[in-house]
Write a structure and sequence with these properties.
Layout (H helix, E strand, L loop, with lengths): L2 H37 L5 H13 L2 E2 H8 L3 H13 L3 E6 L2 E9 L1 H11 L5 H5 L5 H16 L14
Antiparallel strand pairs: 1-3, 2-3
InterPro entries: HTH_MarR-typ, MarR/SlyA-like, Tscrpt_reg_MarR-type_CS, WH-like_DNA-bd_sf, WH_DNA-bd_sf
Keywords: DNA-binding, Transcription, Transcription regulation
Pfam families: MarR_2
């Protein structure tokens, strides 16, 4: 294969990958919107993202949250107030900084999140049911390399046969 053909084949493969990522992102957006609406009708996906980030972090200051999410502090402040009013998030004094508060999910917020996620809880596992464990691990390894911007590491050696 010539260099031009090789470049064209790579371009075509990258465009196909881009298209599949577009489909995957569209599906993800639909799921996030559904989850947000199950938690609170009319909740915007951005508020859902803020809430789930707080849940994953356990507790976090608002400034650390803004930095992590790369969002405007004013918009984040309004979103956090909305989440507080919905009973999903609470503030507690930050023991390491008396001027700051820690944001964390309330027990009600965690219950509502679990209930919102329940209908699709096993969707990924079901989609991967026919995949081998090695294929799943390979996909995870390749996606990690892609998100890190590094070349993929070689696949792990097969386990020794007994």
């Amino acid at each position: 294969m010539s260099d031009d053909q090789s470049r064209a084949a790579r371009t075509e493969a990258v465009r196909a990958l881009e298209a599949e990522f577009g489909e995957l992102i569209g599906q993800f957006r639909r799921v996030v919107t559904e989850h947000a609406n199950r938690i609170s009708p009319g909740m915007l996906p951005g508020a859902y993202k803020v809430f789930t980030t707080i849940v994953r972090r356990g507790s976090v200051t608002q400034s650390a949250l803004a930095e992590h999410l790369l969002v405007d502090k004013g918009q984040l402040s309004r979103t956090v107030r909305e989440l507080e009013q919905l009973g999903l998030v609470q503030r507690t004094p930050d023991p390491s900084d008396g001027r700051a508060s820690l944001l964390s999910a309330t027990p009600e917020g965690l219950e509502r999140l679990d209930a919102a996620r329940a209908p699709q809880e096993n969707a990924l596992a079901a989609s991967l049911e026919e995949w081998s464990v090695d294929e799943i691990r390979s996909l995870a390894r390749l996606l990690h390399a892609l998100s890190a911007g590094t070349p993929p590491p070689p696949p792990p050696p097969p386990p020794p046969t007994p």
